[in-house]
Write a structure and sequence with these properties.
Structural class: alpha+beta
Number of strands: 6
CATH topology: Alpha-Beta Plaits
Number of helices: 4
Strand order of the largest sheet: 4-5-3-6
Oligomer: single chain
Helix content: 25-40%
CATH architecture: 2-Layer Sandwich
Radius of gyration: 15 Å
């Protein structure tokens, strides 16, 4: 299975920030590990500006208001702004399910319904997450 450079980049950036540092500076994997998903989206090229605003609003609110949303990183594939990748890290499955039911996520889904041409969610299993 071929993994795009953008997905690898998102994984690398996300992994750097998903780790907690202990008092002695050693990296430690959360136990249980966080739930990590990758969303691959194709956005209608005529709707990119509006989509980016809706996504920015949703990410800002989710990270600020939901304790179980640890990280949400959104990037586009270089030279292909309609190809969006979102690296999502949640404390656990319950936090993810709570996020899906939040008013701001439901608003995002409604607002972007006609903007998103395709969506693929990728389940992952953390191997090693480290950060400073």
């Amino acid at each position: 299975m071929k993994v795009s450079a953008a997905v690898c980049g998102v994984l690398l950036v996300g992994a750097v920030f998903c780790m907690l540092m202990s008092a002695n500076g050693q990296t430690q994997l959360r136990n249980p590990p966080p739930l990590i998903r990758i969303a691959e989206l194709e956005i209608n090229p005529d709707q990119i500006v509006a989509y980016k605003q809706a996504l920015s609003d949703e990410i800002t609110t989710s990270v600020r208001d939901e304790p179980g949303v640890l990280t949400l990183y959104a990037v586009s594939v270089k030279g292909q702004p309609s190809q969006v990748r979102i690296f999502e890290t949640y404390k656990d499955q319950a936090a993810y399910e709570s996020h899906l039911q939040s008013p701001h996520f439901k608003k995002y889904k409604e607002v972007t319904r006609g903007m998103v041409k395709s969506l693929k969610l990728i389940e992952t299993e953390p191997i090693m997450l480290a950060g400073k």
